[in-house]
Automatic annotation (TrEMBL):
Gene3D superfamilies per UniProt: P-loop containing nucleotide triphosphate hydrolases
A single GO molecular function term of this UniProt record: 3'-5' exonuclease activity
InterPro entries: DNA_pol_HolB (IPR004622), DNA_Rep/Repair_Clamp_Loader (IPR050238), P-loop_NTPase (IPR027417)
Gene: holB
Name of this chain's protein: DNA polymerase III subunit delta
Length: 333
């Protein structure tokens, strides 16, 4: 990543930070707020490289010196990163961080620390951190990363410069994936499931994901074209592919995307179709289903997603969904 990459995805973020670097007007604490996948962590490390790199042009780090390389590898002695220990960041972790910062920098007077998921600080840890950032040491920069600002103490927020990261669009994520050699068909589906680039990329690289897509397509054909086969497909293929609750939730999301494609096809919104390589099958199913039946189907799938969160028998949820989808498909043709 370089600042040009940041500017292309988070223009305001890049402008604020590069101007501060260029003019030598860094504040002692920044709070990066934004959804998962918006690039907060990557920008924090890019910021650290610019801060430490002795060969930067004032903004862009060289990427080749030992400072840059050690930051990338996580081995820089004057860069500290704090992460949740389990579900929270504890007071003892903050205490250890503060202790480390009482020592002089190993290679200069500069220090930089990043707190990932700062919204998971316990109240005690947050209060300890507050005392630390209220009295910053010279040449120390703190970057806090968080998704939910309302879980942070207002006093911490008031001591930081707040920098808001905007969510990536579905097209941004899709472009990022296709630029890495991932096929447009798979990239479009993954970006419809998540706006987290890394999560989307991981999905695309899993063999399971391709198989899951094929199972959903087969299942939807059985629902709308060969309805008497749907339960058989559910037992013999679908349930084997989606064999835990997390995978099953993804399967239901893929079904929702299919149904939305049917709606978009009904409404002639062809540019919004996600299953772009399955247009013939979508058109074939369109002959058998009305808008009302698709809307009903969507509500049934959303209800099944809610039930999965509280049900210890996911296959039972799917059985009921399949039967109700069959009934709904037949009721509104």
């Amino acid at each position: 990543m370089n600042w040009r990459d940041v500017q292309s995805k988070q223009h305001k973020v890049a402008k604020i930070l590069t101007n501060a670097l260029k003019n030598g007007r860094l504040v002692h604490a920044y709070l990066f707020i934004g959804d998962r996948g918006t690039g907060k962590k990557e920008v924090a490390y890019q910021f650290a490289r610019s801060y430490f790199c002795p060969h930067s042009d004032g903004i862009e780090p060289c990427g080749q010196c030992s400072e840059c390389k050690r930051i990338l590898s996580g081995n820089h002695p004057d860069l500290m990163v704090l992460k949740p220990d389990g579900r929270t960041i504890k007071k003892e972790q903050v205490a250890n961080l503060i202790k480390e910062f009482t020592y002089r920098g190993v290679e200069s007077d500069k220090k930089f620390f990043i707190i990932e998921q700062a919204d998971l600080l316990t109240p005690q840890a947050a209060n300890s951190l507050l005392k630390f950032i209220e009295e910053p040491q010279s040449q120390t920069v703190a970057v806090l990363l968080a998704e939910n600002r309302y879980q942070l103490l207002e006093t911490i927020i008031s001591r930081c410069q707040l920098i808001q990261f905007t969510p990536l669009s579905q097209s941004d994520v899709e472009s990022h994936l296709t630029n890495q050699g991932i096929s447009k068909n798979i990239a479009r589906l993954a970006s419809a499931l998540t706006q987290d680039v890394q999560e989307a990329k991981a999905l695309c690289e899993e063999e399971w994901f391709a198989n899951a897509i094929a199972s959903v397509i087969h299942f939807m054909e059985d629902i709308y074209i060969r309805s008497n086969h749907a339960i058989i497909t559910l037992y013999e293929e679908f349930s084997l592919q989606f064999n835990d609750t997390v995978k099953l939730q993804t399967g239901l999301d893929l079904i929702i995307i299919w149904m939305r494609d049917l709606l978009n096809l009904h409404l002639d919104k062809l540019d919004e179709i996600v299953y772009i390589d399955q247009m013939e099958k979508l058109k074939q199913q369109l002959l058998n289903v009305s808008i009302d039946s698709v809307v009903l189907g969507l509500s049934l799938v959303l209800e099944a997603k809610r039930r999965l969160d509280f049900n210890s028998h996911p296959l039972g949820v799917m059985e009921q969904l399949a039967l109700r989808l069959q009934e709904g498909a037949g009721s509104y043709v």
